[in-house]
Amino acid sequence: MAEHIIGTLADFPPGSHRVVTVGRAEIGIFNIEGEFYALPNICPHQFGPVCEGHVTGTLLSDRDHEWRHYWGLHGRVVSCPWHGIEFDITTGCALVNPKLKMRQYRIEVVDGSVCLTLGASVGSDPA
Ligand code: FES
CA-to-CA distance for 127 and 112, rounded, in angstroms? Predict the structure, then answer.
């Protein structure tokens, strides 16, 4: 495992996202309301630059809303620019099929620095 300082907290304000290059890896860094997430910039569909997509929400429908559509997951969804598959940034899972899952890297803020650890995943590895 290798830890990399990729910037300061001020470089990644809440609501921001950007792609950083660490060695040969491109990693999407997302700050969602102060929580950091790091995903590979390689879409599990056909390897598009998924983290360069728009971050938004999505239309949802569930029993609690009597199966009516409503806007949800605001600021938690990145849409791959190649074919539009939407991923929940907080889980790495595609909304259309949670088995289509991206790896999540460990990222944390230490003394005002944003530290990314390559070689360490959060949660279970993708299927
Ligand atoms: S490459 Fe990302 S949706 Fe197809």
Answer: 34
